[in-house]
Write a structure and sequence with these properties.
The complex is a heterodimer of chains A (about 400) and B (about 350). Helix content of chain A is about 40%, strand content about 15%. Chain A has about 400 residues and is α/β, with parallel strands linked by helices. In chain A, α1 runs antiparallel to α8, α5 packs parallel to α6 and α9 crosses α12. The longest helix of chain A has about 40 residues. Chain A is globular. Chain B is α+β, with helices and mostly antiparallel strands and about 350 residues long. Chain B has 3 domains: about 130 residues, HUPs (Rossmann fold, 3-Layer(aba) Sandwich), CATH 3.40.50; about 60 residues, Roll (SH3 type barrels), CATH 2.30.30; about 80 residues, Elongation Factor Tu (Ef-tu), domain 3. In chain B, a hairpin with a 4-residue loop joins β9 and β10. In chain B, α3 packs antiparallel against α4. The chains are: A alpha/beta (about 400), B alpha+beta (about 350). At the A-B interface, α9 and α12 of A face α2, β2 and α4 of B.
């Protein structure tokens, strides 16, 4: 029996999205072609764009389909940077952003960008007043709506208002928030001035049951954004390349379902998640919940297991058929402790002792029971190997 | 599983022998490159991918475990401080001692495993007195020297499926037959954390440069250098001596004195060593019963074993080779053998020249 508790990494494809995806894949036609086949493809694409826009609270023209979260974030951050107002050179970025943002901003430092980092609270929540204080005169700002590792939900309306007041263009990374946090691009943007305030918002399909390979950047009509990919005038000239009609169709279906189920699903996940957290802490009293206990994604349980090696915990749970994440970005050969956990004021040692359990659509009480049955033994073994320091 | 052919075939044989095998790739460097270049270095992302693909083919789970912190402290920092102390360390040996058969083995046992299985070429033979460590069947590939540092306790949790293989060629053929993509991957030779092979340049970067004197055995200054750590006993190249030797013969590094940043040079004959000793020692299996015995001593991974007499006391081990040894540097490990069997090892602290200074 496999217990999948890594929905934040990717969540199973929804059958309805699969159906829409396959049906669209079997229809020939390039949405940019002018013949009948092309027109059929274009019709499905634009219908999908309209359905996505309805869920995301924006105009259809503001939905730019991409290959996923990383591309959306790159397009937003690089695009805003290269089209920045003359005389601006600062990028406002909190310390606990996703690597897609962190690495993109770091690359722009070589292009003359000046980083204005924003410290986060011990929960990884962005301090909205510190964020606001760094905005004046900045070229752009970027922030997570919900933290992908620790699940803490930020005060996105406050961040968007601050950016609008400072007349700085803001990108919000909504990849982890999608499907769980109510998102209205229009509502968050409010009456911000042209090309300032919330101008771009990234989302990805595979976090809500669409296939991997489709996402979107919601881009305000007035946003000043330079394209990264060139070669065609598709999607307002912001994203050249043959448009992925099938991906867009599947994404639209998944977005509608996720939004329709959101409140009931959040409450179901939260009940299971709280039982998971309580159960773990009963069995491993040393375990500590990271992130904000209330303002957090309903399926996220991010726990510190003091003295345990995260890799060992992951291994032992995996052997028990339980899939979780250490949350660290460990590429082979290049191991790094989580910068998010470090930004929360934890030690490097602590950063190596965390596990992220994330629940989703297919999670059930059986999954929680499996973790609770395995966790005490896993902890005792994984901390034994961790404490056998020097010989 | 390093991503090389040996560990892949070792894993395959372990699976075939019916063991419950999990593949582990050690992440030892935080600055690993992306692609490998020739036979140099390891720990690139490509190596990890090769290991993963081998595990996929064998149908075993595969994990990358981060030991970079331990590796940095126990192997890299040790390597630097040994050179700074004028000694010549063997980092592969230190890695076996502290990482592969210590940190990794400890973790493996905590997690419920019985043994660490590697692609090393060496043999374990069970006897009434416990396990004995022996040379591999293929003398050319024998790696028992770098395993000489393992203790009886470590050997009891170790498995070397390649030790009895007649040659590396057999392993490559076997890898190809099994469809392992690493079958023709070149062997790695260099120190893994110095991927360009430039140990001197790497050391200079780590410890900086400092001009010092090169003197002969009478104390006369014959040249200068940019840092004593860059020299190793027995070295001839790179001395750039301004004053030629009286007899015109080439001169070799005889001694490195890190405190005064001085390098001592002299004729080849002066490299001959009649006695070596050290305080840090271990036995690869049961300790010898006698305090004095005949054996062979090997002082480098690819040196010939030389007949010698060993003297063991609680304070350390002293070895007198029957014929003087050449190119012995403090810091090197002396591994003692009887025939193919590894008895144990010590780190050389002190050497006694066979040729007096005024000879």
């Amino acid at each position: 029996m496999q217990h999948y508790l890594d929905h934040a990494a990717t969540t199973p494809l929804r059958p309805e999205a699969r159906g829409a995806w396959l049906a669209a894949s079997e229809t020939v036609g390039n949405a940019s072609s002018t013949h009948g086949a092309g027109q059929d493809a274009r019709r499905l694409l634009e219908e999908s764009r309209e359905r996505a826009a309805a869920v995301l609270g924006c105009d259809p023209i503001e939905v730019v389909f991409t290959s996923g979260g990383t591309e959306s974030i790159n397009l937003a951050v690089q695009g805003l940077w290269h089209a920045r107002a003359a005389g601006t050179d600062a990028i406002v970025m909190p310390d606990a952003e996703h690597h897609a943002t962190v690495d993109t901003v770091e690359a722009l430092l070589a292009d003359g960008a000046i980083l204005r980092p924003v410290p986060v609270r011990p929960t990884a929540a962005i301090d909205a007043s510190a964020f606001a204080a760094r905005l004046p005169g900045a070229a752009l700002a970027t922030a997570l709506i919900a933290n992908n590792e620790t699940g803490t939900i930020n005060d996105a309306p406050a961040l968007a208002s601050a950016a609008a007041a400072a007349r700085v263009p803001l990108h919000l990374d909504a990849v982890s928030a999608l499907g769980h946090v109510p998102l209205s691009f229009r509502g968050l943007r409010g009456d911000a001035p042209d090309a300032a305030g919330l101008v771009a918002m990234s989302v990805a399909g595979h976090k809500i049951g669409a296939p991997v390979g489709v996402g979107a950047l919601v881009t305000a009509r007035t946003a000043r954004l330079a394209a990264m990919l060139r070669g065609g005038a598709q999607q307002r000239g912001l994203r050249a390349g043959t448009q992925d009609v099938a991906g867009a169709a599947a994404f639209a279906v998944a977005l509608e379902l996720a939004e329709a189920e959101r409140e009931a699903e959040n409450s179901r996940l939260q009940t299971m998640r709280d039982r998971l957290i309580d159960g773990i802490r009963q069995r491993v009293p040393q375990a500590e919940l990271l992130g904000d206990p209330r303002e957090r994604l309903p399926g996220n349980a991010h726990l510190l297991f003091p003295g345990a090696v995260g890799e060992s915990l992951l291994f032992l749970l995996d052997m028990a058929g339980i899939a979780v994440s250490t949350g660290s970005a460990c590429q082979a050969g290049v191991a790094e402790p989580s910068h998010v956990v470090m930004a929360m004021g934890r030690s490097e040692q602590d950063a190596r002792s965390v596990l992220r359990f994330s629940l989703g659509r297919t999670s059930s009480d059986d999954d929680i029971d499996a973790v609770l049955a395995a966790i005490a033994d896993a902890y005792s073994r994984a901390s034994g190997s961790g404490s056998a320091e020097r010989s | 599983m390093s991503g090389g052919v040996d560990s892949a075939v070792a894993a395959a044989r372990a699976v075939e022998a019916g063991h419950d095998v999990v593949g582990v790739h050690l992440a030892l460097s935080r600055a690993g490159g992306t692609l490998r270049t020739g036979s140099r270095g390891c720990c690139t992302i490509e190596d990890a991918l090769d290991a993963r693909r081998a595990a996929d083919l064998l149908g075993i789970p595969f994990y990358v475990w981060d030991f970079s912190e331990r590796f940095r402290e126990d192997v890299i920092a040790d390597f630097v401080s040994e050179y700074q102390a004028g000694r010549t360390p063997n980092p592969c040996m230190r890695c076996n001692e502290k990482i592969k058969f210590a940190a990794l083995l400890e973790r493996a046992i905590e997690l419920g495993f019985d043994a660490v299985c590697t692609g090393h070429y060496a043999t374990l033979i069970p006897t009434d007195a416990g396990l004995e460590l022996h040379r591999a069947a293929d003398n050319a590939k024998d790696q028992s020297y770098v395993l000489g540092v393992l203790t009886a306790e470590q050997l009891a949790h170790t498995y070397f499926p390649l030790g009895t293989t007649p040659s590396k060629a057999v392993v490559r053929v076997e890898a190809a037959e099994r469809g392992l993509t690493v079958a023709q991957k070149p062997d790695s030779h260099d120190i893994c954390f110095i991927p360009d092979g430039d140990t001197r340049g790497w050391l200079a970067e780590k410890v900086g440069t400092a001009t010092g004197e090169i003197v002969d055995r009478t104390g006369e200054i014959v040249g200068s250098h940019e840092g004593a750590h860059a020299f190793t006993v027995g070295q001839r190249r790179g001395l750039k001596l301004g004053v030629p030797a009286a007899d015109g013969k080439p001169r070799f590094v005889l001694e490195v004195r890190p405190v005064s940043n001085t390098v001592v040079v002299g004729p080849k004959e002066a490299l001959a060593i009649r006695e070596i000793s050290g305080e840090r020692f271990s036995w690869a299996g049961a300790a010898p019963l006698e305090s004095e015995f005949e054996c062979e001593v090997q002082i480098r991974a690819h040196a010939e074993p030389e007949p010698a007499r060993a003297f063991v006391s609680p304070e350390g081990v002293r070895v007198e080779p029957h014929q003087p040894l050449n190119g012995v540097a403090p810091g090197q490990t002396a591994v003692l053998y009887v025939g193919t069997r590894v008895l144990g090892q010590f780190t050389i602290d002190r050497t006694v020249s066979a040729v007096p200074v005024d000879a």
